[in-house]
Design goal:
disordered N terminus; mainly alpha
Length: 250
């Protein structure tokens, strides 16, 4: 319904010309502090250079900088050199086993929405690499298992929320996120501030609180409260993976 808190948030975000997903990706890219600052996702990535910097950050030594065209480019060479960089981005993605069927460098240069698929897989790779066990890659199943085990370890508070996967509808009320934060850093959650009502409005308030507290204990999360309430499985995975990264060092 258009009058619901989620619908209002969607309309508000869309009125700026940027979706929530695009906003999350933009914040993630800017967290690397590369130049240029990404203000307009499609425009600022079209020469491929910043994407290549991010590839090098998430997988050190992956990029062969001898193959990279460094801007600014002469007008007559701008398209050629930009697309060449973008084609190299696709090549690197495939080296990391990304699923990039039907995506070409030209799509990135032209500001095609297919760019979002590449960004999602880069963001996912980066997040899961934070928990890499030596050369062993950590998958989503391991994240779910770790989170549930952490919740079960807490002998003080019984009945903590557990979940089966990142599509689990029970995650929408943020209880599992809040409980995991409190299990990682006991006493950090003020449960008197958690709204127990099962409605969209209370879920949204709880989501805001959970993301604030996740960041407070050191989890770098780029999801928005609406992502939790809508049960966005991609963003839920990133939230829990980031909490796992914090929990492994606490």
């Amino acid at each position: 319904e258009l009058n619901s808190p989620i619908s209002k948030a969607v309309v508000s975000t869309q009125s700026t010309g940027e979706t929530r997903e695009e906003k999350s990706f933009r914040h993630w890219l800017n967290s690397f502090n590369f130049n240029p600052y990404v203000s307009y996702l499609y425009e600022d990535l079209r020469d491929g250079h910043l994407l290549l910097q991010v590839f090098d950050a998430i997988k050190p030594c992956l990029v062969d900088w001898n193959r990279v065209n460094v801007p600014p480019f002469e007008d007559r060479l701008h398209v050629f050199k930009s697309v060449e960089n973008c084609n190299y981005c696709i090549e690197l993605g495939k080296q990391l086993k990304f699923k990039l069927i039907g995506i070409a460098g030209l799509n990135i240069y032209e500001g095609n929405k297919l760019l979002l698929s590449l960004l999602w897989q880069m963001m996912r790779y980066h997040t899961l690499s934070l928990m890499r066990d030596g050369e062993k890659e950590i998958g989503e199943e391991e994240v779910v298992s770790w989170c549930n085990k952490k919740l079960e370890e807490d002998k003080v508070k019984k009945g903590r929320a557990k979940f089966s996967n990142f599509k689990d509808a029970s995650l929408r009320n943020s209880r599992a996120v809040l409980d995991l934060i409190d299990a990682i850093q006991p006493g950090s959650i003020g449960y008197d501030m958690v709204d127990p009502r099962e409605c969209e409005e209370s879920w949204l308030e709880n989501a805001r609180y959970s993301l604030t507290m996740a960041r407070k204990i050191g989890a770098t999360v780029f999801a928005l409260p609406e992502d939790i309430v809508e049960g966005n499985p991609k963003m839920m995975m990133l939230i829990f993976a980031r909490l796992m990264a914090v929990g492994n060092v606490v």
